[in-house]
Structures are given as C-alpha cells and as structure tokens.
Design brief:
By secondary structure, this protein is an alpha+beta fold. The protein is built from 4 helices and 7 strands. A hairpin with a 5-residue loop joins strand 1 and strand 2.
C-alpha cells in the first residue's frame, strides 16, 4: 500500500480489461460504465468500495483523478468535506492495491498513513484496488464523541 504525496509517472496499462472493438455496441455500453469516463483508457483502474454493512460497489477511476470525484460521477456517495485534504471527512482504508495522494494530505497523520489510510478527495489509484469507505472509517482514526 502506498500513500505518498506525489503522483507516479505511469500506471499499469494492463490493469483493466477493455474491448479493443470500436463498433457501435461498445459505445452503447457506456451507460453501464459507473465512472462516466471512457472505460477503454488503459490508465483507468477498478476501485472496489466496501462499506461496513457489506455493501460493495466498483467504480472506474482514471489516472490522476481523485477517487471522490470519480465516485461522484458514478453517483456513488462517499463522505467528503473540503476536497483538498485538510478535514479528513473522506478518509478511506486501502485493503488491496496501490493508492497515492495527489498533494500532501494535511488532514492525515503519519501514523494513519502508515496503517494504509488515505484521503479519497486527493487520492488516486495506481492499480486496481479495494478500499473500505464510509463515516465509520473516519471515526476509527480520528475518534468521535458519539461512539
């Protein structure tokens, strides 16, 4: 798991299965693409989002695109506040795969980063990955008076 502060230069081009067909049927299948992005892009990554109640959804995140932005385009609700890494509301835990921060994660302590936590508003995947998400993830790291 990576939670560095700089994006990597390149992504694994074989990380997502896509059709090499350019016929009209592949264009018509864009309705099923959860991200709203072009699913044929080799720099896209599948991100499995897992909630505490067992709900799982997979979105496609383009290289360099924040996870929260891709989720929003896919109409998947993730908690967020500031959108620039300062508040910690969008905290997620990397269960599998590689994720990096696009800028310094000011709202995340070093210890939490070392444990695999990332701020989804400024984080992007470098591989297909699996993240635990939801309000309870933030409470795990930052605590809450309502426990």
């Amino acid at each position: 798991m990576t939670s560095g502060s700089e994006p990597a230069g390149g992504a694994d081009p074989g990380s997502e299965t896509s059709s090499s067909d350019t016929d009209s049927s592949s264009a018509d299948s864009s309705d099923s693409d959860l991200s709203g992005a072009d699913s044929s892009d080799a720099d896209d990554h599948a991100v499995d989002l897992v909630w505490r109640d067992g709900t799982e959804k997979t979105i496609t995140v383009a290289a360099g695109d924040p996870i929260v932005d891709a989720a929003e385009r896919a109409r998947v609700s993730l908690p967020y506040g500031c959108r620039y890494g300062a508040c910690g509301t969008c905290l997620a835990r990397v269960l599998e795969g590689e994720v990096v921060h696009l800028e310094p994660p000011r709202g995340l302590k070093d210890g939490a980063r070392e444990q695999g936590f990332v701020l989804a508003c400024i984080a992007t995947p470098e591989s297909d990955c699996r993240l635990r998400v939801g309000h309870d993830v933030q409470a795990e790291v930052m605590g809450t008076p309502w426990k």
